Structures are given as C-alpha cells and as structure tokens.
Amino acid sequence: MAVKTLTINGEQYSAQEGESILSVARQHHIPIPTLCHLEGLSTVGACRLCVVQVEGSPKLLPACTTKVEEGMVVTTSNTKLDKYRRMIVALLASEGNHVCAVCVANNHCELQDLAYQVGLVRVRYPYLYPDKKLDATHKEYVMDHNRCVLCTRCVRVCDEVEGAHVWDVAGRGINCEIVSGLNDNWGNSQTCTECGKCVMVCPTGALFEKGVTVSEMEKKKGFLKYIITARQKKEWVSISND
Amino acid sequence: MSDTIIKPKVATVWLGGCSGCHMSFLDLDERLLELADKIQLVFSPIADVKVFPQDVDITLVEGAVTNDENEEMAHTIRKNSRYVLSFGDCATTGNVTAMRNRFTEKELIDRSYRELSDICNSVPNDFTLIAKLREQATPLHHVIRVDAFLHGCPPTPDEIWFAMNELLQGRIPIFNTQFLRYG
C-alpha cells in the first residue's frame, strides 16, 4: 500500500493510503476531540467535533472521515477550531436535558469530559428543555432520551457488531431521535438479544443499567476491541477497559 | 484585625438553589476565620441584612433565577456589585432548579399545592407574600452579565477558597483548566 506524507501542526508524518487524518493523529498522540467516533465501529462524521483545517480547503473537514493525501497540510487546533468545538458542545448541552448532578453517568460521561476538554465555562445559548421520553420497558436497561446526543454509536454497535439492528434513527432536525424496532418500546423488541453493547458504547447516561443511581454507571468499552480483533485477526486479546 | 484598613465588601446571595453551595462555603472551616480578617460580609443568608447594599466588591450568587424576586435581585446585584460570580451549577447551568422547565407553571403549582397536599387544597394567589414563578428557571448569566463561573454541585471548599483569593487580589478566577467540572 502506498505511503502518503502529510504535515500536521507543522510536523511531518507518513501514513498509509486510505487512512484517516484522525487515525494518524491518534497514532502520534495528537489530541483531537471526538464523540461519535469509536474505534471498532464504522465512521459517520456526525458530531463534527473532530473538524480540522486543511490548507486549500475552504471548509473545515472532519478528521475521522477525511482520508490522508500526499502533501496535505493539516491544523488540528487554533482559535477558530477551538471556538467551533466549544460551540458544538454548548449546542449539545442546550438541546438536551443534561443535568450532571443527578445523572447516572456523572463523572463517567464523555460529554462532560468534552466540556472540560474544550473549556466550556458556560452555555450562552438558550436551553431548549425538550420534552423527551424515557423508555424503561426493557427488563435490564433504560433508554433516557433526555441525555441522548444522537452519536448513533448504539445503532452502529447493534447492527455491525451484535448483528441485531434493534436501534435506528427516526425524525429529522430537532425531532431526530433514536428508536428501537419500528419505533416501539424497547421491551417489546423481538430482535434485542439483551447483550448490553449499546449501553456500554453510549457516551452519556442515555443508556444505562437498571438499578444504578447517580454517578454509578461506568461504561466498559474493552469488549469492542476484543471482539473486533478476534474477528479480523483471529486473535483473542485480553480485555482492557481503558 | 484592624479597622483602619478598608476591607473588600463581599456579599453572598441565595436564589433558586438548595443552599448546598452555601453549606460548602461554610465547610471552609478554619479558613473562614482567615477570610473574616480579609473581608467585610455585607449581605448573606447567614447574616441578618434585609436589603442588598450599595458598592459591593464581590458577590457570590447561588442558584438559578427561578422567580420574580430572584430576577429583581439579580438586577440589583449587578447594579451594586463590581464582580459577580456564578456560584455553583444552578447559577451556571440551571441544573436541578431548571428541571421544572418542561412543565407549565400551572402544572407545577397544582402538583405541589393540590396533588401532594393532604389538608390544604388551595394554591397561592397573593404574590406580595410569595414570589411568582418565572416561566422558566434560567442560569444567572442569561439574566445579567456575570464575571466568573464557579462550577460544581456544590463547588468544593478548595474551589471556593481559590475563587475568593483570586477575586480578593483583583483577578478574575479562571477555571477552565484546574477547576472546570459539572455535577
């Protein structure tokens, strides 16, 4: 496979053809915030947090879906990018009902971590307080749409890894939401295997195990690497939950 | 302690919150004595002062702006204070206080005064005695300009100590790295 040479933040790096900017950045410990991206799942470029500046492009490009090209000049952080990322997190915070103090995922939440990472000191936008539902019909788990950021990790892990495709996306714009089955209660699902993969990959407290209370829901994502490596390389790696 | 030195005037205000932030303030423990030497507390839920004074240097505001009285107070605070600090998550994000925002005022009043009441089946209507709820509880900075934000539910005594010391030295405390946290 051909090798491509590119510049990231003034430093030269080489990458394999077909690799994403994000993948190269991660290998070299260049921080780029992400939310919808999760190693082991397909890439959708939905959250836009990983946007980077590429010389010659009038638009900011998502690092997760943009492939490296020979001679590419990439900037991963500057005043403009930092501002946009802060705006994205602020918009996510304002369009849901995120109340950290009473959330099952408090202190174990990727949205919370992102707020710190981008330096979100306060939200200037009016909070929308949408009237979202909570689905507790499943015997093991709960889906609280109030805390959902529509990253679609649950949809992808269920379809691509578990092969059940219980989850999907319905509605558009502000009415967009995750649905189970054909927009039925989760508890009525004939396809759900109760594996809990969706719960573990969910970045916030939207999907959680029944019985946990404030700050108790820790997501363990190690299984994903374990399964993917086993499938692709026929190797059984030890599960780590870093 | 010397009375000849003019100490900065500090106020703390309790709007729509649970008073947890003030409890955390009291958890400064022995540091309160050190603070008492440095400041003049001119208004606070723990001091019996009825009217928010003029020319306050630093005001810490706990809680979201949830009723008419809070809103009026917020404007008075801004007018009379040099630095205003959003004190804790309710003032900064609305937090638990704002969880009522998806319900109408009527639903809230009915729930609190009728459905959950055994004996008294009437709702308040004299708003000279009880503050009228605003349509929505909002963070303080959606109502007035705020100079700094102290996060946490509640902020820890260490965070409060840091903020107070920065403000007393005339600096706006910056929390983005060291103390930025929600919940």
CATH architecture of the largest domain in chain A: 2-Layer Sandwich
**What is the distance, rounded to the nearest whole angstrom, between the alpha carbons of the first and last residues of chain A?**
31 Å
- CATH fold-level assignment of the domain at 9-100 and 134-168 in chain B: Rossmann fold
The radius of gyration over CA of chain B amounts to 18 Å
Which runs of chain B of at least 5 residues are low in confidence (pLDDT < 50)? none
Strand order of the largest sheet of chain B: 2-1-3-5-7
For the biggest sheet of chain A, the summary is: 5 strands, mixed
CATH class of the domain at 9-100 and 134-168 in chain B: Alpha Beta
Beta-strand content of chain A? 15-25%
Average pLDDT of chain B, rounded to a whole number, is 92
| Largest sheet: number of strands, sense, barrel closure of chain B | 5 strands, parallel
Structural class of chain A: alpha+beta
* Tally of DSSP helical segments of chain B: 6
CATH superfamily of the domain at 9-100 and 134-168 in chain B: NADH:ubiquinone oxidoreductase-like, 20kDa subunit
Distance N terminus to C terminus of chain B? Answer: 38 Å
Identify the notable features of this structure and list them briefly.
heterodimer; A: 242 residues; alpha+beta; Ubiquitin-like (UB roll); Alpha-Beta Plaits; 2 domains; 5-stranded mixed sheet; 24% helix; B: 183 residues; alpha/beta; Rossmann fold; 5-stranded parallel sheet; two-stranded antiparallel sheet; 6 helices; 7 strands
